[in-house]
């Protein structure tokens, strides 16, 4: 099975969490699955920027990316966040290779359009993906661990939402499933209840009604896009739960929210 697993940056802030995720990924690969791990690092970028005296600005969950913000994003996501995670793989005895969408030209993005009349700056939207590098690394027994940066027009590095990168890669790679691991239990409704099953129409309604806010807006939009591009379903699940990846793949119920037209 081809699996694209997006890991929220907050899950990678603690050494114990990184170690558990690395062990699970290694176990899945030994079971014969092909993997691509895509990670964010927004919280770490924000902390770095604050320490550097750079203000963070967001529009509908997307970070406005000036040249100095991009410099911070590259240093943190492709640098410290990616390599601290790779260190956890090394400690677990699992072969992993850190990449970004810029490596091998595997993710190309166009500049994102303005949102709510505001420019997002050096933010990209995935235009095309070349999955050849994912196959090469998996064939060599390596887990690809991708930071959410992409090459843009003229070779300009662009900051891209990690959920969107995961969806673009999954569609191009013909992945069987996408899993979004987050620091929340799943998607919640207007009364705060955990929603176990959503159709794309349900997800769109949560965004338009304002029930979904912040980073969840990007997750739900990406999930809807994934389903529209032929991915059977997207699971938004709590990454801190023990053996969460194995349980989801085994079909164990009671974890997170599934966005799908059919399989939930």
Give a summary of the structure in a few sentences.
This protein has about 260 residues and is of the alpha/beta class. It has helices at about 15-30, 40-50, 65-90, 130-140, 160-175, 200-210, 215-230, 245-250, and strands at about 1-5, 35-40, 60, 60-65, 95-100, 105-110, 125-130, 145, 150, 155-160, 175-180, 185-190, 195, 195-200, 235-240, 255-260.
Report on the structure:
Helix 2 packs across helix 3 (67-92). The mean pLDDT is 93. The protein has eight helices and 16 strands. It is 38% helix and 25% strand. The protein starts with a strand and ends with a strand. It is an alpha/beta fold and 264 residues long.
Mean pLDDT: 93
* Biggest sheet: strand arrangement: 5-8-2-1-11-15-16-14
Relative strand content: 15-25%
Uncertain stretches: none
Tell me the overall shape: globular
- What is the H-and-E element order? EHEHEEHEEEHEEEHEEEEHHEHE
Radius of gyration: 17 Å
Question: Separation of termini?
Answer: 18 Å
Helix content: 25-40%
How large is the count of helical segments?
A: 8
Please provide the count of β strands.
16
